[in-house]
Write a structure and sequence with these properties.
Two copies of one chain form a homodimer.
Chain A lengths: L6 E8 L9 H16 L8 E5 L11 H8 L7 E5 L4 H14 L5 E8 L5 H10 L14 H16 L3 H15 L13 H6 L2 E3 L2 E2 L9 E9 H7 L4 E10 L14 H14 L8 E3 L5 H10 L8 H6 L10 E2 L4 H4 L7 H13 L13 E8 L4 E9 L1
Parallel strand pairs in A: 2-3, 2-4, 9-10, 9-11
Antiparallel strand pairs in A: 1-7, 1-8, 4-7, 5-6, 8-12, 11-12
Helix pairs in contact in A: 1-2, 3-13, 6-10
Chain lengths: 387, 387
């Protein structure tokens, strides 16, 4: 690989995540304007937009790029939309990163968005099932709660975990999300709340699952030279990795690990010249509580099978050994699927530039984002450093 | 911009365009396998896939990348899907190009696909209208035939063209498509056929409009070093440009020109170090007959207002001054919207490597592809050279 330019995040912004009334075009624009204002740049300095979105169809607007660029007053600039299921945001970020690193563009707006809740739970579940390997999974009735339940059951069997252990992940992330004014579920819950919530797909209960959310998140990505000339706060991207797994869960050798995470993480650590031990905090893909446990093992924070013990011991709590999902994660902050990967970068930017308020990870210098699509068929990992 | 590597197309393949019975996953795989076999490479040499698709929802499969990679036996490799309405294929090609040019990957598969005809004309029209600026256009009932009819009416008024002139574009493209065994509409038509076909949106009649098509097209994109080591036929990408226009037609100063085409073409010509005069043939975005005339002017082949005269004089016919749409274009070859931009590259590859059979453009050395989204809100232009 050839990196002509160091790449930096110069500004970031998000709408609130939740059930939003505005159109997909409106929330895309809102988040982008927040990031542009936060970066303190003129929209005319933006050379292109990288949008991530999965189900524009649900709000009758695909081809979002030209709509955004027109509303920003820069209609002549190119744009595109990237989809990689629930990992769309991080893949779009990666493409934008590659273009800045290669010296093709010096300043980009990267905006992720999803607007689905108005279609109702049944349609949203149906849409999301289209992200599976539909021939083998979706059309057989295997939607994501069922697929992650299979992983959870395997984990329970293989490593002697309990359902209360999964509940602890939910409680921790709601504790963090309670401190995040933009979180969809800004409320604390107890282990008892989780255990007594309705079973969605055994052993996963309602509070083991992230909510369906609307929302948009945006960051300004630029070369180091551009960032320095603008003089505001910025952070540096020091690692970027991507990977894949067999699309259908049935094609994998093991149910308790996600191959694409390991591949993407290895690439990102190698590029950054660091190891998992150097990470101060991480935003990881906790679409279900089991996912966060598997993620923290695949990312190398804990040995395989030991992630659950770490949760039990509170080692992933805010300002403990390694703060996992200080934002509240998908579980509490919410999961507007096209926005999630970009929203993770917004959190890292806020953390490393002193904007995270009550949920600040103390003395943090290095943050990691981990975002995958479907059951981890696609994954991207990025590592950031304060400057 | 920094180009570490020269970028080449090493192989190409398409399914037939038309109403296809197979699933979107199946036709994506079919086209990709054809390109891989044509390139004579082992799938394991592919480092990532760039897919273009707009309405995966219509066939219940988004997140197509991992599905394709799994079927190719390389599930560990990363993938993504790019959407830019009807210009998705060329934008995906551009992203893949940028990644190879920057030295990030040495070999990629770029596959465009669409599978919509099974949803019927009403649903397909509805889906496509989501590609407009829906707030200003789609929801007001302005679908694409109506929007291009507005452009056509303006052109008739401004430049003294006739509806028969538009018909000549359709006749020419059907003449070319008749020679293309993969064309959706592999049949000749007459000016009288066009003039007597039902009015869709005056002045555009049925035969002024491209069909709704299913189909997939794929190319293998690689570094020059990789191409030379493999020894088969390849062509070089010498120019790449992108641009944007106000998303809604009402936001433009003129109705008879598409700003994004001019911006993208200027960039591509500059990179290639050539002018419009050097182009031997071009695959241009003729979603409606009026579009081809506007395109050939915006690309600099003819002065503004003179494109229609060129058509009248047969100067855009196969093996005349400049062969426009030797494949049959969107009009006759068909328009599976996510595949179209990649399919144009397949045609250029076939032309420049002696695989175009009866529709060969004689002594051609340089070919251009021009593909836009919606009414040209987004556009990409690429220029290729035989080696």
């Amino acid at each position: 690989m050839t990196f002509v330019e160091k790449v930096c995040v110069l500004g970031a912004g998000s709408t609130k995540y939740g059930k939003l009334a505005e159109s997909i075009a409106d929330i895309t624009t809102q988040a982008s304007v927040l990031a542009i204002e936060n970066a303190g740049i003129d929209p005319k300095e933006i050379k292109a937009s990288y949008i991530s979105n999965v189900f524009g169809v649900a709000d009758k607007q695909v081809h979002l790029g030209p709509v955004l660029m027109s509303r920003l007053g820069i209609p002549d600039k190119p744009s595109l939309t990237i989809e990689s299921a629930c990992g769309s945001g991080s893949v779009s970020f990666r493409e934008a990163y590659a273009n800045v690193a290669a010296g093709f563009y010096d300043c980009l707006v990267v905006t992720g968005v999803e607007k689905v809740t108005h279609t109702g739970t049944e349609w949203t579940t149906t849409y999301f099932a289209y992200c599976s390997d539909f021939f083998y999974e979706g059309q057989a009735g295997a939607s994501f709660p069922g697929l992650f339940a299979s992983m959870a059951r395997a984990y329970l069997t293989e490593f002697g975990a309990t359902e209360e252990d999964f509940a602890r992940v939910a409680v921790k992330n709601h504790d963090n999300g309670f401190l995040n004014p933009k979180a969809h579920m800004q409320k604390k819950i107890t282990i008892d709340d989780v255990m007594k919530s309705p079973v969605v797909a055994s052993p996963l209960k309602l509070y083991d699952c992230c909510p369906f959310s609307d929302g948009a998140s945006s960051v300004i990505l630029c070369s180091e030279k551009f960032a320095k000339e603008h003089g505001g706060d910025y952070i540096e991207v020091i690692g970027s990795g991507r990977g894949g797994s067999p699309a259908a869960l049935q094609g994998r050798e093991q149910m308790t690990t996600i191959p694409s995470t390991k591949i993407a993480a290895a690439d990102a650590y190698k590029m950054a010249g660091i190891t998992a031990k150097d990470i101060d905090f991480a935003e990881v893909h906790d679409c279900f509580t089991i996912a966060e446990i598997v993620d923290t093992e695949d990312l190398g924070f804990f040995e395989k099978g030991k992630g659950v013990q770490a949760v039990r011991e509170g080692r992933t709590n805010l300002n403990s050994d390694i703060s996992i999902n200080p934002s509240g994660g998908l579980k509490s902050k919410g999961h507007p699927i096209g926005a999630t990967g970009v929203g993770q970068v917004v959190e890292v930017f806020d953390q490393l530039t002193g904007r995270a308020g009550a949920r600040t990870v103390k003395d943090a210098k290095i943050g990691l984002t981990h975002n995958f699509g479907a059951t981890g068929a696609s994954c991207a990992v990025h590592i950031f450093q304060s400057v």
